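Worked example 2:
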Amino acid sequence: MEKIQYSGTVWAINHNNPEPLVTHCLKKLQEYGIKKEDIRLTDAPENVQVGEIVVEMWPYHIDVARVRTIRNESFISGSVMQIELRTDEQGNYID
């Protein structure tokens, strides 16, 4: 399993996702080498720095990106990896 290289804060963007999804995403990020204390769960990251990791949570995958530039308080990021989230037949996360 490839580890995510990062320094500083890892921004996990949460737009009112269900708790089981958020919990599973945080678990998966830790499996990929991110320390729990470095993850900031938010719906709008503030003071994002170039080089930090931004994570977008979706029901079936996690998009991991690195901030490349900042313009007018917005950031532009490039994809680092996509982590698949698997579920069983009842929709429970399994991995």
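Strands lie at 10-13, 39-42, 53-57, 61-71, 74-84. The mean pLDDT is 92.
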